[in-house]
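Task: complex structure prediction.
Instruction: return structure tokens for all chains below.
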Amino acid sequence: MSEDKQGGYVALLGWSLNAIDAVDRMEGRRYVVVAPDWAQDYCEQHNIPYIPWKFERINDRSFEIANVLKERGVDVAIPLFEETVEWAGAINAVLMGNPRLMGQAMLFRDKALMKRRAQLGGIRVGIFEEAHDRGDVVRFLKRVNQALLKLDGDPDDPIHLKAFDKAGCLGHRVIRTPDEVDTIPDEEFPVLMESHLDGWEFAVEAWVHDGKIRFLNISEYVRLGYSVFVPASPELEKWRPRIREEIEKLIETFDIEFGFIHPEYFVTSDGKMYFGEVAYRPPGFKVFELLERAYGFNAYQGMVLAFDPHTTEKEITDFFPREVVDAKGHAGCFGVYPRRRVVSDLAIPPETENDEYFEFHELQAPMENKVTKRNAFGTHWGLVYFFGEDPYRMRELLTKQEDLDFYV
Amino acid sequence: MSEAGRPQPVEAAAPAQPEAATTALDTKLDHAIERLAQARPFAKPAAIGPVLSLARRRLLQPDGVDALYARAASLDQAGIFAGTDWDNPQALSASFVGAALAQGSAQQLTLECISALRMLAIANGAMPHPVVSAEHARHFLTQVLAHNVRRVFAQAPDEAERQGDAARAELIHRLFGFLVAHVGHADILASVCEEIWRVLGQRPIQVQHARAMIAQIAVTLTREDVAAGGVRLGADRLINALFGPTELSRDDPGLPSYRERLAALDRPGLQREAAGFARAMHDVGLVSDYHADFLRWLLEQQLTDLLPDALGLSSTGIDSLRCYSDLVHALIAEAVTVATAQAVYALAMLLERGTLYTPAIAPGLWRQIGLELSAQAEATLAATFGTAVPARVHLLAGVISVLGQPLGVAQGNNPTCQSARAISLWAINDPDYLLYLIAQAAKFDRLRMEFEGQPLESDQLPQGLAQSVPADNDPVSTLLVPHLDRIYNEMGRLCAERPQDPHAWVNPEFHGWWVGRQFAIAVDVETGQLADYETFLRHFFASYHPLFNGNQPVIHPQPAGLAVTDSNGRFVGWHAISLLRVALDHEGTMRGYFYNPNNDSGQDWGQGVIVSTQGHGEWPGEASLPFWQLASRVYIFHDEPYAQPDLAGVPQKKVDDARRMALESWAADRGGD
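Output:
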């Protein structure tokens, strides 16, 4: 390999075997995994470059790990999980001599701050407020519905409660009546409250390098928390130019030079786009794996290219395929939640297993018979993967899975 | 979003055609294989799941076996076997394949199928392998087919399996069909016959499996499409031994017709029949139903003077028979039926062994003949052996079997080698005690033994290693093992806290006074590390090797413990055997002869240590190894309490050879001492 193709040295923050596998296979790049000490034996056994680190609340020691990485000659740190985003900001501030990266990371980690910043940048957001106790929640629910000019007796519009700093659906609750407010445990406060938007929710994955979008994917949620597929259906893809504009606005507002962002939006029936939130790490629901299935490129490798300051223009342009047209089909997955209160066996429904689009599943046999009651959105028990050519059939298939029992 | 605005796809998705579905599945499978191939070794485990899931579904389709065969090489190279036993194809054991297919998880089933197809690809030269040669692969497949002869010759999926899991039964059937089509019938028949001869050569008590295989071969040979050629001869001897061992029964006429023919036969003709039965029985080790019925007919016709011929007895056996003729006649009348025909061979051996001359044996057998079984014992035996003849008949036949063939006892598919060994040892060293135990268990559903003076009652002890009544054992084992297992376990528990291996106390207490109270063990019980191994080996040579122990043969067969290794010499586990004798074979090699409670003693333990069962001076049922090779695997043995073996008299080279062999196999990670 020629000298000028020599890429940089990256640190992966957090443990993801798929990410490690992907970067290990890249030519011309060095890497080191920064992960908790339980990973040590595994890394030694498999010759994976590794530095042990406890990612707790960010503290004075962030400087310590930043210096360790700097001494090693690491160019950039890549966060793999929500919890490591602020660490990446702190470390990259040191590695790149750019203190603003730390502040930027704090924006990504605090949903209330994030929304304010978006609003300041002229991005449309719903109504939101922080709540410190249940009184705040009741007040917000009433104010929102007053503003909507609801009459007494009309059903109230719901509001959404989200933890400030958790990924995805974790800690997400929907509140419809003041009675429900009592069910919120004390320890969940403070929370972010948002008005409900009746629209089509979707997510975007964007790889950014030199302040420019290098690849933009739209993930279509068939049902939030249950199913997603990529690339999106033509109905959603027709908004791509508008979506691109919104993302560019986001990049400018948040001052993003490089990296990977994963924002969520609502598009309402009249075509208005509302910003939900943005994360600076790979999305959940294995969207990276879905992208690889649909397009054939490895999304983690794309992330390394986007973060690495040594990446050349040609390298990154050659790496990404053309959006939508280069996809070989649509890849989707469905998160399974048991539908019964008591389950004893894993039983893949024949209509799923025999479907032409079905690929494989990652479900395990149940460890306990009793299903814990879901509060908020909870976590699914595993994913079922599909791949096929027709986006409508895919959407129908994913919808149909909601009515099937995978655990009996 | 609104439904109205949604455009229909240009072409409505056609209902999935079977062919289209197959193609789609192939594409998905190939994609998953590609991802697995790309993954680094540490990431392979996660990439294997999707491949296995897709491969399994592809296998279940009608042409799935072909499709997977075509991908055998790419699956192997992608790393489908990474981190599993299948990754070492040279060490795979053909005998496990059938069980893994039938009982393994969906993943194991899929891996086993792919493994077999990989072997076929190697055998056919379609896939060169760095370690496994085409010949080896071919031999392996032949062995797999030989072990699964029932499936190979079956015209349709096994009905019992089909009722459990139809798709799996169908797949197994198609897999074997595919393998047979590529490997060929003649090869299998030859090796199946060889296999049966080898197993029967060890004279097991339990022969149902061999009988079933021979019946299958007989059926196969009548089909025209099987070109058996020279194989036919060996097969015919097996088939005839079961279905037509004599002139009069050659055409397998059925018992009623056979009896009619007997009635019309003259005295020389009857003698020829008697000799024919005896010859076939001693040749093969199987007893024909005609033979059993012939003996009953001789009793009925008061032609008992033909019994010595019909049993093929030597002068010793004839003398035994004459001294105890009433007893032997009673045993035939009470225990030899078509359902228990195999007891005829054991009866002949019982007479030949001279066991009846031990004073307590004849009365003990009379007790057994008149014994009333408890309801529970009756039910247990009926559950295993059926109700065609009463349970007491099966038990009496079983008693004759263990006394006549002490080395034919086996543990079946149960983790109860100590109990099987104990029955075998008592049948040799203490046959009257064994009769006593059987009578107690059959009549009272309990056994009482003592451990250092403390009484142990089997019916008051928790379950041992045998989780249920073993269904694949001889009648005596079926009855005794659950009791023995509990008592053995309890004895182990009672000395678990002592600072030495529990066998030191349990073996003599459990078996009898004749187990030496001096105990030698090669490893430290706490750490599993070798402990003064050199002295251990010297002691073993000095006590048991005739050239170093003053030419003293083994008096009572002794329990001993072996470190069993696989064909790569890797440690598999500790195993109980009996040391029977040490002697020179006809080539002048000093060999240790031992009893292994496994069903088949012929095993490959790696490093060229191949346990022999025939051709090196073994008596039927014995296993043997050159003494130094046996020494390299022994880790526990007993010696007489005051014995002071001449340790210094053992040449250093003998010790070093055995020691090196142990250190290069089971003791590799045990510190070397």
